[in-house]
Amino acid sequence: MGLLQDKLAKYDLPQQYMAMGVYPYFRTIDSHQDTEVLMDGKKVLMFGSNAYTGLTYDKRIIEAAKAATDKYGTGCAGSRLLNGTLDIHVELEKELAEFVGKDDALCFSTGFTVNEGVIPQLTGRNDYIICDDRVHASIVDGRRLSFSTQLKYKHNDMADLEKELQKCEPDAIKLIVVDSVFSMEGDLANLPEIVRLKKKYNASIMVDEAHGLGVFGKQGRGVCDHFGVTDDIDLIMGTFSKSLASIGGFVAGDASVINWLRHNARSYIFQASNTPAATAAAREALHIIMNEPERQQRLWEITNYALKKFRDAGFEIGETESPIIPLYVRDAEKTFIVTKMAFDEGIFINPVIPPACAPQDTLVRVALMATHTKEQVDYAVEKLTKCFRELGVIE
Fold first, then answer.
1. Cα 82 vs. chain centroid, distance in angstroms?
2. What are the tens digits of pLDDT across the range 260-312?
3. 183 carries an active-site annotation
């Protein structure tokens, strides 16, 4: 075995958990995604999906994807810059810009590559990128590609953010990049206070609304809308792979900034454009979200119900204010074991261990959809309570 293989084997934790029979990743699903899925011939309640609006098997979206495939084919065989721009790409961009309250928008083939491509193009060598220390990996990778000075502040600690801003040269660009909803813990960024500090220190803000769109704000416009700060946010990013029931992503902002990104974001101009089916699916999902506010209302009804049930059962769920409910385990091995125990009880949940969280903050992540029922939540709370008690995590 060579040096590379020796080094990788040393850190191969997945192999250790495979040997224990509790490896929880890459589990195969044999059906469409809904509140109930089929796995190995067994029906399992799905509490591990980001499909907050419950639209991934909506017949209208499926038909829109089929129609786009019939008209445009299965792919564009090129980048947006060259031969890969379709009229539906442009139409979706216009609708997204209007939806989030910005001049213009730019669609990418994945949400990850939005952050990977946009962030490095916004600042230069003498500028600053400032991030919450729990931002998504796509934001981390995006800032790593920049030559700017990179600063981090403690999670949602506005005093610490101000200290970082005070380190910056007054005339330099100071870009604050933050998730609106933190995807593992479910809590919200303190956008009103971040906006206040932006104005005080002449900074700019980019907000990742991946887990906010479809969930917060009027007609699901996101956390920026929820807090009434949209006009003070310079760039809003979102994905199609959560509430919009597809794959892809976008960034929206002032027309001049979007035009700059259109010609400079490397993960945009050197990446094949999104498929016709995915584009049409996201567009139809957007229309449904805007026209069916009752869907968002149902999501919040089941979310508030579940939050109370888990708290009453004695689970530690932190500061979540969203359909993302973290159940803290605070032990990596027990986190994997309880994930396996839950699956044996017919419940699919996701384990969260480093680097997705701090070593002392391991958890299992429960995520809700508008289509979940109270009966399904009751069953999940009952079985997860049993599993957590057997492991001594809760009393």
1. 29
2. 999 999 999 999 999 999 999 999 999 999 999 999 999 999 999 999 999 99
3. yes
DSSP state of 239: E
Residue listed under structure tokens 């509790």: 22
Is the pTM higher than 0.90? The answer reads yes
What pLDDT shows up at residue 2? Answer: 75
Residue with tokens 């139409």: 91
Q: How many CB atoms lie within 10 A of CB 2?
A: 7
- C-alpha to C-alpha distance for 106 and 235, rounded to whole angstroms: 11
The pLDDT tens digits for 129-164 are 999 999 999 999 999 999 999 999 999 999 999 999
List 183, 204, 241, 273, catalytic entry: 183
Q: Hey, what are 335's tokens?
A: 């986190």
Given 211, 226, 309, 372, the catalytic residue: 211
Sign of CA dihedral 381, 382, 383, 387: positive
**349 neighbors 339 (Cβ within 8 angstroms):** yes
- Confidence band for 13, pLDDT divided at 50, 70 and 90: low
Q: Are 327 and 310 in contact (CB under 8 A)?
A: yes
Q: How far is CA 14 from CA 3, 26, 346, 353, 365, in A?
A: 19, 11, 23, 12, 19
* CA neighbor of 131 nearest in space, from 153, 162, 163: 153
Choice among 174, 242, 309, 372 that is catalytic: 242
Strands 128-132 and 149-153: parallel
